[in-house]
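Cross-check.
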Amino acid sequence: MNIAIVDDERIELETTEIFLRVYIKKFWTDYESQIHIETFRCAGDFLTFFSPKIYRLVILGKNMRHIVKFICAHDVKILLLTSEGDL
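Predicted model, tokenized:
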């Protein structure tokens, strides 16, 4: 499974990646070698590489809402990170 994390905030991008890797190691140890995480700091870079056949899950930072509709047009799961004030 390939997972993309797209966030223009470096700290949030790194925090999300670390959290996800720890979660996978703790709860999905048997599948850890089959899960690949790629990070992108720019929506444009991500869209250059995006293919619904490559990514099964896309995690988007709060400033990446503008690409949600594009990704939703494909059979890809999206997780949108927001803070409480953004709701």
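The beta strands are 2-6, 36-40, 57-60, 77-80. The chain has a mean pLDDT of 91. Passed to J.P. for a second look.
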